[in-house]
Structure formats: structure tokens, C-alpha cells
């Protein structure tokens, strides 16, 4: 009597990447145990990793930024946290009138009817490392004569800040305390 071959349906499936010479053997072993195999193409690393350019929203980066006031002057700042976070801090200090904690708050409160355009924040650089960021900020401030960075009297020269961060000069301690109140890294 001729024996009819009954095809057994796999009870489950395994989805495996196809690797020549390996997956075939694995398929044989798995099918003996009623496990079917489906192949999938192996994605390239590039396809798996999100593209920084597309995924990271513009303001969720460390870096150097520029805000414009209705008077035409700019404020250039840098942060080691996200730019968005730092901007929110400026807004909070402005609404609370903390003029000693933000050059923007100081500018808006001492100049009647001046408003900061928070809708058009320019990201000048996404430099994440500390020294390149400080240097880039200094360069941008020097390039832009029409800024109000120096108006508040609290922000010290960036060159000084750079020197400060490289040394632990105790004589500067008093100034450092004032500085830390106005610059958040
Ligand atoms: Zn202004």
C-alpha cells in the first residue's frame, strides 16, 4: 500500500536572516520540530540607525544659538544642555523678572516694549564639546556687533570664561559666583 505523505503544517514560524550555508541547516533542524522558517533580508546598519539629521529636532541639541529682539539686536548664547531647555529658562527668568539671571530678561525689562522672537531661534552651531562651543559663541558675538550680550554687566568676556574654566584661580571666586548665576552649562 502506497503511503500518502501527509504534510505537517508547522506549528510556529521562525523569522531568520538568510546566511548562506547556515540558515539552510538550521531550517532542516527546525522543520523536524514543526517549526517553519521564513527568511528576511538583513538590514544594513545604516538602515537600522536613525539619521541624526532627520530625527533630532533642531532645538534638542547642545550648541550655540541666536535670539532676536524686536529692536533688531541679538542675543547669542551657548549651552551644554538642550537649546530648547535653555530658551525656556530665559523665558521663565523674563516672565519672573529675574534680570540678574538672564541677559534676555535684563534686556526686556530695561527696554520698554522690546520683545524676543522665540519663534525664529537660530541654531548657529551644534558643537557639543565644551571648548569648541565657548569659542564658537565668542566668535559669533564678535561677528555680530548688534548684540546685547554685554549689556547686563554680568556676562564676562568669553576669553576670560575660557581661562577661568581651565584654571581654579581662587582670586576669581567672587566673579565665578556671579557668573554661575547667569550662565547655565
Ligand atoms: Zn531689544
Please, how many domains?
2
Helix/strand/pairing class, anyone? alpha+beta
As laid out across the biggest beta sheet, the strand order is 4-3-5
The CATH topology of the largest domain? GIY-YIG endonuclease
Shape: rod-shaped
Main β-sheet, in a few words?
A: 3 strands, antiparallel
What is the CATH class name of the largest domain? Alpha Beta
pLDDT under 50 segments (min length 5)?
152-156, 167-185
Proportion in helices: 25-40%
Structure summary, number of beta strands: 5
Protein name: GIY-YIG domain-containing protein
Organism: Aromia moschata
InterPro entries: GIY-YIG_endonuc_sf
Structure characterization notes:
By secondary structure, the chain is an alpha+beta fold. The chain has two domains: 12-41, no CATH class; 57-168, GIY-YIG endonuclease (3-Layer(aba) Sandwich). It has eight helices and five strands; from the N terminus they run E-H-E-H-H-E-E-H-H-E-H-H-H. The chain has helices at residues 23-32, 45-48, 52-55, 83-96, 103-110, 130-143, 158-166, 173-182; strands spanning 12-17, 35-40, 63-69, 74-79, 116-125. Strands 4-3-5 form a three-stranded antiparallel sheet. A two-stranded parallel sheet has the order 1-2. A hairpin with a 4-residue loop joins strand 3 (63-69) and strand 4. Helix 4 (83-96) packs parallel to helix 5 (103-110). Residues 152-156 and 167-185 have low confidence and may be disordered. The structure holds zinc ion. Zinc ion binds next to loops.
